[in-house]
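User: For a benchmark we're assembling, each entry needs the component sequences followed by a predicted structure for the full assembly. Here are entry 17's components. Please fill in the structure.
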Amino acid sequence: MSDKINPIRETDDEARGLARDLLTGAATAALGVIEPGSGAPFVSRIAFGLGPQGEPMTLVSDLAVHARALRADPRASLLIGAPGPKGDPLTHPRLTLRASARFVARDDGRRDALRAVWLGHHPKAKLYVDFDDFHFVLFDIADGLLNGGFAKAYALDANDLRVI
Amino acid sequence: MSDKINPIRETDDEARGLARDLLTGAATAALGVIEPGSGAPFVSRIAFGLGPQGEPMTLVSDLAVHARALRADPRASLLIGAPGPKGDPLTHPRLTLRASARFVARDDGRRDALRAVWLGHHPKAKLYVDFDDFHFVLFDIADGLLNGGFAKAYALDANDLRVI
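Assistant: Structure for entry 17:
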């Protein structure tokens, strides 16, 4: 039975707008990576934001499991959108991104611009942004899956998800 | 430099209590799975709760990406604990579980008890709990990583995480 049902609706401007709103409004994300060695999935919370060109990004410590994992295998998945306090949380919109992670080297010419935008949205990060073990990571989006609530799923490509 | 630092603290009763509080209080989780075919990570939101013996569980539709993925590869990671509205979200406690998923068949003798407990905590699920494509999934926990805030990480084993 399930094989005959396609639960994905046709992508429209409302879906694109909702996805972009989730991207613009998120300060955190759940990051999924592949753990080196075991190959098992691993999910952790990261700070999240958009860079000067709207590129999804984070700031991570090399001490974190997810940072070591992404250096070994850049494939990442990001879940964005927090459930609200009322009603069935599965009716609240959320967005899964399939992406690839790129670490920004300390001497990369883009770092100053990324740092400025990041601290604008995450002012408390000024306490650790310049620690030796912290690095910015940019996520190149392959595609996304928007779940706008029960039976409201949409597949989105990288263009649908472009904020700027 | 980073290689010389072990960011994991010794597990104590405070850490165990915090982890159990997160497990008991969670109505949703971010679930990480391995996508069939690509082998890439995929994170989505699921409803979350504890069964009659305190076993972590969810209710999923076979139409969902994560259900198909778990049927192909039961390895799962669950992120539990929502960031609060104030302060740096990375200072708010969260728990990552490494687990293995077991689907509960419709004719499994435990289903009635799981269903009763589930609907007690997720009353809105009565709208779809008995749909043909919905199944309960139990998570056997291997271990966990608690992040109680900046520089407060703890490794927890399955016993540390036992609620009942």
